[in-house]
Amino acid sequence: MKPGLRALLLRGIDSACQSLNKHFIFRQPAQNAHDSAINLLRLLERLPFSASCCKLLRHLVFPKTAIDLGGVRLSQRLILAAGLVKGDGFGDEADALSAVTEERRNIIPGWRVLPALLGPVEFGSFTRHPRLGNPGIVIWRDAAARSTQNRVGLRNPGAHAAARFLADRRGQLPTEFGINIAVTPGLDDINQQERDVVESIEFFLDSNVIPNWFTLNLSCPNTEDDPQGHQLEAETRQLCGAIIAALQARSLTVPLWVKISPSLTAEQYRLLVQIFGEVGVRAIVATNTLAQPSPADPSLPAGVGGGILFDETLTAVRHLRAAIQRTQTDIDIIACGGILDGASFRQYLDLGIKAGQYWSALVYRGPFAAAIIENELVQYDHEFEAVHRESLA
Ligand SMILES: Cc1cc2nc3c(=O)[nH]c(=O)nc-3n(C[C@H](O)[C@H](O)[C@H](O)COP(=O)(O)O)c2cc1C
User: Fold this and answer.
1) What is the SS3 assignment for 284?
2) What residues contact residue 303 under an 8 Å CB cut-off, 6+ apart?
3) Backbone angles phi, psi at 177, to 5 degrees
4) Protein fold of 3-388
5) Which end of the chain is least crowded, N or C, by CB within 10 Å?
6) What distance in Å separates the CA atoms of residue 367 and residue 20, rounded to the nearest whole number?
7) d(CA 216, ligand 1 centre) in Å
8) Of residues 367 and 231, more confidently modeled
9) From the CA of 221, how far away is ligand 1's center (Å)?
10) What's the Cα-to-Cα distance from 2 to each of 7, 55, 268, 339, rounded to whole Å?
11) For 120-153, how does the pLDDT look when each residue is reduced to its tens digit (9 = 90+)?
């Protein structure tokens, strides 16, 4: 499609999404809207031509922004972040496996249609064992600040069942996807943590489910763990080193990315960059959500994403960028925090960042958020250039 026509179409889609949000979606609590979206994905995945229709739509509206990033080539520089295509929660592995093999249930709604519609998607987080996550209402929004907040608590089917589910659909797997593995929350023994993350990855590899990248999520603000717990020097080195060794032992070139927290100190970011460089991590996803008091119970944390996170992530990215430049390390940064429009994305690009991940933008800008943001960026840059030219004249 011609760029001018695409821009017009995306503006139309954007206003339709704003009006749908205002009159329908934002009238429901965030939790209900989220649950309905997951049910819709489940329904779409039962329909025979939904993935092909999504692919067609994608080719119509998404501009090509192909990029080499963190050891992979991607067709787009905006990637759907972990946490949407993560699957159902289960109490134990036998139940999760039985849902896959006997009930033949879709335990990872979105696995097919979202990559078809959006391009690169990060699946997970998956932990070694399944988790039910936290009970009750666990998702909120603050529309005025275009923010989301969640206390999902790593609900997921566990790496074994997730690998089995994807392996059964190997011929239909997307061409661009990552798998995000989280450290098991609440484990004190670092050697057990290491076994857990390596086993999680091996479930996928043994089933011949080979993603374009793995991400190790070292930062889970909504679980039993302090979000900084796994980001200490020795733990980080051991966990990342073990995964990279497991990948190398199979002569696989799948790169490891790592996801970290906002609000660490400049020195902590510097140290993390140094360790990532030494062990061979290829990209840093900065950042996960920011732990804030939960709207339901202020004594508990719940992670904030979107507009409120933006400044925190921008600061984290500045520290990481400075550390990478100082050490001349070959690591990409993937900005993830409050990319909601062309202007916010531009601020990351101006720091020399090549790509971003988004989650809250789906809520505030709709399913074509990434295409809308790219379109706004072009507009934003044109306007900036015009003002700049005028001021020089
Ligand atoms: C409901 C919800 C669930 C999430 N679950 C995960 C998860 O399982 N693993 C993870 O690494 N990040 C998870 N995230 C964090 C997002 O991937 C992302 O880092 C964060 O929302 C910041 O991006 P944003 O500002 O675009 O929302 C979750 C976010 C939300 C809103």
Assistant:
1) strand
2) 149, 150, 151, 221, 222, 288, 289, 290, 291, 292
3) -150, 150
4) TIM Barrel (3.20.20)
5) C
6) 12
7) 14
8) 367
9) 10
10) 9, 18, 46, 25
11) 999 999 999 999 999 999 999 999 999 999 999 9
Q: And the tokens for 76? A: 């787009």
Whether 375 is in the pocket of ligand 1, judged by its Cβ within 6 Å, is no
- DSSP SS3 for 228: coil
Can you tell me the distance from the alpha carbon of 79 to that of 81, in angstroms, rounded to the nearest whole number? 6
Element containing residue 357 per DSSP (H, E): strand 355-358
Distance of CA 96 from the midpoint of ligand 1 (Å): 23
Q: Classify burial at 137, counting beta carbons within 10 Å of its beta carbon; exposed 0-12, middle 13-18, buried 19 or more.
A: middle
Show me where the domains of the chain are located: 3-388
pTM exceeds cut of 0.90: yes
Give pLDDT tens digits for 55-82: 999 998 998 889 999 999 999 999 999 9
- The distance in angstroms from the start CA to the end CA of the chain is 35
pLDDT band at 230 (very low <50, low <70, confident <90, very high): low
Quote the tokens at residue 344: 């916010």
